[in-house]
Specification:
This protein has helices at 10-18, 29-41, 115-129, 151-155, 229-237, 274-291, 315-327, 372-388, 409-422, 437-443, 468-484, and strands at residues 45-48, 54-58, 70-75, 99-102, 105-108, 138-143, 166-169, 177-182, 184-193, 196-198, 203-211, 216-217, 246-252, 258-259, 263-270, 300-305, 311-313, 331-335, 343-355, 360-369, 392-395, 427-431, 448-451, 456-457, 465-467. It is built from eleven helices and 25 strands. The chain is elongated. With 488 residues, the protein is of the alpha+beta class. It folds into two domains: 3-181 and 401-484, 3-Layer(aba) Sandwich (Aminopeptidase); 186-395, Alpha-Beta Plaits (2-Layer Sandwich), CATH 3.30.70.
């Protein structure tokens, strides 16, 4: 079964369409062009900016002209990650997402699905294309580069948010929950400069890999305790520093906002320690399998003998690098004291990559917190560890948090509409993930916002899936909510 077979709501038609259009973060020109062509075809007023953001306006349906105007918002970009078997075989800049339907879910074959935030985009397009949905004046805002740092929202002119004081963000991932707050975030990067050293001949050279981890969203899933491939590969390599281990290359992770699910390293040790290297691999495999059996049961460590490389990282820099990776924090730093089970502060050891042309190893981390002061504190902590290790450290300016407002009028309308439709109360929460709503408030402080969406599992991983039933309820709810928006 395919998405095109899901014909009972118009949203699926548009989700299928946009999954044929490449939309990696910061490479949204093709999807922006698609959205603009759609607006022209539907004879709708639109505008776009240099960041690729698009705003499309639609007048109210007959009899709804006096309703308060509403902005619906989603981001166009998606996190693009493939399984190890597809690396080098898929080009996210050109290829469509290969989707299928299985056991009540829409999934992708070997890649991220892009339901985050493609379902929201599809809902907006379905609404704009409709002629049978009652609604007041609506504006649909499509932003870019959300997944890499909310750059589209940062570049947005305040005029894009001046047409309404109600905003519906369609970028949440648990249907039946309304999000009214989010964490702010920053990135901290360290670059280690090494001396290129001739690899010794009397060494045993090998490549070690960590694979099979789920990874996941570094905000929404950081509290699940899933394995971090960079941390695990460091655990393997670190004990051999005393045996003069040399690194030639180390790689892991792909996105700043994803927990890294795979990593590899090319390393060498004196030949007399070869058996210990194999033995330690088996011991560590057993250890992490036990530690992660409830959250990452498929974790796998492998190693293979390789020919000696021409060059490697000098021992001193390699030593400092692995010591830093061992010491650098990863995971939950603190919990929120006002909202139950909400992570307040965390840090994600996200990416490590070796550049043999520049003789550098780059380490990228991301920090999140709903407390601005704690965000600064954890950034300082990570900065200090990288600096003590000898890296050149830089940090990003980040994005703002969104402070919850439990007295929100659109929240009250949303929760009552949900209860009337489905006969039960919806949950109200904040997320440790980053949403653009904090930035939007800076442009229009009068905005009354709520975020909701269908149920999406394993976002930012190749196991991403969206529950079909929840998408249909999400669409039904959105249509009903727009019908009930009060008069201005």
């Amino acid at each position: 079964m395919e998405i095109k077979d899901l014909t009972h709501i118009p949203l699926w038609y548009f989700f299928d369409k946009i999954n044929k259009v490449p939309r990696p973060s910061e490479k949204e020109s093709k999807i922006t062009e698609f959205i603009v062509k759609f607006a022209k075809k539907c004879d709708l007023q639109y505008k776009t900016d240099n960041a690729g953001n698009v705003l499309i306006k639609k007048t109210a349906t007959r009899g709804m002209e006096n309703r308060k105007p509403v902005i619906l918002q989603s981001h166009l970009d998606m996190v693009c990650i493939e399984v190890a078997e597809l690396k080098g075989k898929i080009d996210f800049d050109k290829d469509a997402i290969n989707t299928y339907v299985e056991n009540g879910y829409v999934k992708a074959k070997g890649t991220t699905l892009g339901a985050d935030n493609g379902i929201g985009v599809a809902a907006q397009l379905a609404l704009l294309a409709s002629d049978d949905i009652a609604h007041g004046p609506v504006e649909c805002l499509f932003t870019t580069a959300e997944e890499t740092g909310l750059y589209g929202a940062k570049a947005l002119d305040k005029s894009y948010l001046s047409g309404a004081n109600i905003l519906l963000n369609l970028d949440s991932e648990d249907f039946g929950e309304f999000c009214i707050g989010c964490a702010g975030g920053r990135n901290t990067q360290g670059v280690f400069k090494y001396k290129k050293t001739v690899a010794p001949e009397d060494y045993y050279w090998f490549k070690v890999k960590v694979s099979g981890l789920l990874g996941g969203h570094s905000g929404c899933q950081i509290d699940l305790g899933r394995g971090n491939s960079i941390k695990i590969i460091t655990r393997y390599l670190y004990p051999f520093l005393s045996q003069k281990l040399l690194l030639a290359n180390i790689e892991g992770g792909e996105k700043h906002n994803a927990i890294p699910n795979s990593a590899s390293a090319v390393a060498g040790i004196p030949k007399s320690y070869k058996e210990k290297a194999v033995e330690w691999l088996n011991i560590l495999q057993a250890a992490v399998s036990t530690e992660l059996k409830k959250v990452d049961k498929d974790v796998k460590l492998t190693m293979e003998t390789i020919d000696e490389p021409k060059f490697c990282i000098d021992y001193e820099t390699g030593n400092k690098l692995l010591t830093t990776l061992c010491a650098i924090p990863h995971g939950v730093i603190g919990m929120n004291h006002d909202m139950k089970n909400l992570v307040e502060t965390s840090t994600n050891l996200a990416i490590i990559k070796t550049d043999t042309t520049k003789n550098t190893v780059e380490v990228l981390t991301s920090q999140r917190s709903s407390s601005e002061t704690m965000n600064v504190e954890v950034c300082n902590q990570v900065y200090s560890v990288l600096s003590l290790g000898g890296a050149k450290v830089t940090g990003s300016d980040g994005y703002s948090s969104w402070k919850p407002n439990k007295k929100s009028n659109i929240l009250k309308l949303s929760t009552s509409t949900y209860k009337n439709l489905f006969g039960k109360r919806a949950a109200v929460r904040a997320t440790h993930g980053g949403l653009e709503c904090g930035l939007f408030l800076g442009l229009n402080p009068k905005l009354d916002q709520v975020s909701f969406g269908p149920t999406i599992h394993n976002a930012h991983t190749p196991k991403e899936e969206v529950e079909i039933e929840s998408v249909e309820k999400f669409w039904r709810f959105l249509v009903e909510l727009l019908k009930l928006i009060p008069a201005a």
